[in-house]
């Protein structure tokens, strides 16, 4: 019988800590987006050496959250209208495709869980936009978790950070949080009626509204 060996579980590395710290800053729009910051500047602010920082920045670049230009540095990655349109096309495709299997098995208890997510969103104030976005993520991911569409969920997670990065600006638009709550409630109505057409339309409208607002915001910057 062959010996079965396992390596010891490694503790979180400095690179991981740097990565997580910077990712939070990026997702909260607290990392430079209209100018470049050098590797040395970031290292000085975090009080870390450049080797683990460089590894963390590479991971963030691979996720397409930041961009890098030699001799200039790093900044939050910006996306063209075409890029944004493609991201939302992908979201619409996979979220609408999961509607049929979701409606076949969703229970009353699970519908109540969606309602509770929206209730939590309603209790938040405008300055709590990051927590609002976290609940938005929970709402949409739940649509894949219930029917156990794990492959779809992994595909969704690949570009989820990009939609959060885009949506974090949109959600700060005055009145958008209230609109999202209404749009989520429309989706829940589709769940309750087990109506595929209504649910797909509600999802499409919700994502299209977010895309339109972002494009309009870019035009007026």
Topology:
Elements (H helix, E strand, L loop, with lengths): L13 H14 L11 H8 L3 H13 L3 E4 L3 E4 L4 H17 L1 H7 L2 H15 L6 H17 L4 H21 L5 H18 L2 H24 L2
Antiparallel strand pairs: 1-2
Features:
221 residues; mainly alpha; Arc Repressor Mutant, subunit A; Four Helix Bundle (Hemerythrin (Met), subunit A); two-stranded antiparallel ribbon; 10 helices; 2 strands; 70% helix
Short characterization:
By secondary structure, this protein is mainly alpha-helical. It has helices at residues 14-27, 39-46, 50-62, 81-97, 99-105, 108-122, 129-145, 150-170, 176-193, 196-219, and strands at 66-69, 73-76.
What ranges have pLDDT less than 50 throughout 5 or more consecutive residues? none
Mean pLDDT: 90
Can you tell me the CATH superfamily of the largest domain?
GntR ligand-binding domain-like
Determine the structural class based on helices, strands and strand pairing: mainly alpha
Number of helices: 10
The shape, in one word, is globular
Strand ordering within the main sheet: 1-2
Q: Tell me the fraction of residues in β-strands, as a range.
A: under 5%
Tell me the number of strands. Answer: 2
Name of the CATH first level of the largest domain: Mainly Alpha
CATH architecture of the largest domain: Up-down Bundle
Order of helices and strands: HHHEEHHHHHHH
Range of helix content = 55-70%
What fold name goes in the CATH topology slot of the largest domain? Four Helix Bundle (Hemerythrin (Met), subunit A)
Number of domains: 2
Distance between the termini: 67 Å
Radius of gyration: 20 Å
Biggest sheet architecture: 2 strands, antiparallel
